[in-house]
Amino acid sequence: MEREVAPIINDFWGRAEFPRKAVWGLRDLGITGSQFDEHGCPGMSNLASGLISMEISRVDPSVGTFFGVHSGLALGSIVLCGDEEQKAEWIPKLLSWDKIGAFGLTEIETGSGVALGLQTTATRDGDSWLLNGNKKWIGNGTFADVIVVWARDVEDDQVKGFLLETPAEGFTAEKIEGKVALRAVENAVLRFDNVRVPETHRLQRANSFRDTAKVLRLTRGGVAWNSVGCAMGAYEAARAYAIRREQFGRPIASFQLIQDLLARMLAGITASQCVASRLSALQENGKVSEQQAAMAKMYCTTRTREVVQWAREVMGGNGILLENDVARFFVDSEALYSYEGTREVNSLIVGRAITGYGAFV
């Protein structure tokens, strides 16, 4: 990441393009699907997997998001919800990057209400299914070879998962323009007009939103680690700047106010690392709950939001220049703060566990 991505990422981020060639080296490290141990997956600990996410995002959260979508959401959906034949066919393809994956859940008008408000439909037609509807904010959506599409079965009203190979008749992917965060991620609006998917491409162990939630429970921990990495990148850039930047004849790192900001940043990062590490330990023992994953995502992204603000403050006006890196972390943190469950929605998941009352509506 430091050798191949760091020197070029500001340029790609500014042009809103994904640096595909620069990230290809990640494939050869053998870290894809790190937390899984099936069909050639590395079988690393959950902590090791989290640290990988953290280190990627420490250099660039856009690349961290790409990796999380491909290695976590797409591959994880197949591991958790596919049958043995589907695993044997698809996991090696995603591990080798012969196929790049995406995860199609979020919709244009649904957002946080996706559990009950999923509008994309799946209609059984003989030995295949017809998908109709729209998805939005789908990372890797412009270039993915296989997209895990979540749709509501019109017959039993349950959410099911489908492996859509692209290109496909009736399917279009339109890149979302005008983003101010995670600009190097190629998010897309996906449209399905009677897109036919064979029954063999329906995830056989995904029969309700509870199965979708299994994937999200796993990957929310990954987002917590991504946000820790984002905070670390901002902190390191701000610290380096404070040491080299001089005012009034000495480095600003020698000023009390700057040291106070750096100390606050480091404390927030350290606390978030502890929360994410504890979540990884719970995952390792198979004891993690939905509310614990939600709390980790909520807490770590909130602390990251604070850290990147203080990092920009250390730099003064120079903090808004892309060339100084902090500006990229500053705005990217806003996307991490919102995706895979906003802070508010995750807080309500925790609140329901605390009180026994659901307060979503």
UniProtKB/TrEMBL annotation:
InterPro entries, per the entry: ACX4-like, Acyl-CoA_DH_CS, Acyl-CoA_Oxase/DH_mid-dom, Acyl-CoA_Oxase/DH_mid-dom_sf, AcylCo_DH-like_C, AcylCo_DH/oxidase_C, AcylCoA_DH/ox_N, AcylCoA_DH/ox_N_sf
Signal peptide residues on this chain, from the entry's feature table: none
Start and end residues of each Acyl-CoA dehydrogenase/oxidase C-terminal domain: 212-354
Entry superkingdom: Bacteria
Keywords: FAD, Flavoprotein, Oxidoreductase
Cofactor: FAD
Residue span, Acyl-CoA dehydrogenase/oxidase N-terminal domain: 1-96
GO molecular function terms noted in the UniProt entry: acyl-CoA dehydrogenase activity; flavin adenine dinucleotide binding
Gene Ontology BP annotations: fatty acid beta-oxidation
Residue ranges occupied by any Acyl-CoA oxidase/dehydrogenase middle domain in the UniProt entry: 102-195
UniProt record similarity statement: Belongs to the acyl-CoA dehydrogenase family.
Protein name: Acyl-CoA dehydrogenase
Organism: Antrihabitans cavernicola
Higher taxonomy: Bacteria, Bacillati, Actinomycetota, Actinomycetes, Mycobacteriales
